[in-house]
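Section 3.1: Structural characterization of target chains.
Under the original work plan, the team committed to producing a structural model for every single-chain target entering the pipeline before any wet-lab resources were allocated. The record below documents one such target. The sequence was received from the expression subgroup and is listed exactly as submitted; it comprises 265 residues.
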Amino acid sequence: MMKNNSFKLIFKNSNNQEVDCDYRLHDSILADKWFKKIKHLKNIQHDHIESKLLDYKNLKDIYQEFCKFAEIPPIDFQNIDQKLLNHLHKIYEQSHGNLSKKENNSILYKFHHSIHYHESENNKKINKINVGWGVKEGPLTEHFYCNQYYESQIIKNNIYLPWAELGKTPLAYWKNAEPNNQSRFNELAKPHITFRTKFFVATKNIEPTTLSNNFLDWFNNYKNLWFEHYKINRWDHIDEHSAPLLAIANHKEDLTDCKFVRFEL
């Protein structure tokens, strides 16, 4: 059982050896809510798609498999550019409501992860160990304003709550050349308002970089109505590049190339 807000995560390194790591739960309402949810999932196998353990490189094959499952005709493409990725993301959004209710729908989420994998080089840099349960978390997902809990920096080995929306952050929306349209921006760009029972362990320190003037000039055209739409009052480089702290590492292990195995509470 958890004692003095302490628990363990067990990993396996590249030599298939177990690495035992001690953690202390962070003192916040959000961290406490997260841990209560984790207690319900600790004995359930984490999802390989949500934990980003699969290969997302072959978007064309993944898309073909998605179309077969969705029973829609696929479009033919040879080259992958942002215009195509935006179009595929729109297909995913439009399909999510119906396909998320079907059984054996893992290809829906694999398709989504593959799109985002190809959208940014940052997605291909491994600096986090991601853990999630996907649809297995069921009713544990809830609406909750998470941005107020974001940290000024991400510290190696600590545990954080990832942004987990059906959409994109404002910066990603701009970088991906989505439509310059307030209605679409309000629909697709989202703050962190969905609290899902997932987490990541940082494998290196991450210092949130400042937002470019080009982005800020563009964002100024949309932010006030976007703030009003989501009932928030700010969005900055911390919201874009950081995350809420869940637990603090009481160890100095190098977790590079390690994979999460289980909790010990």
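The longest strand covers residues 18-25.
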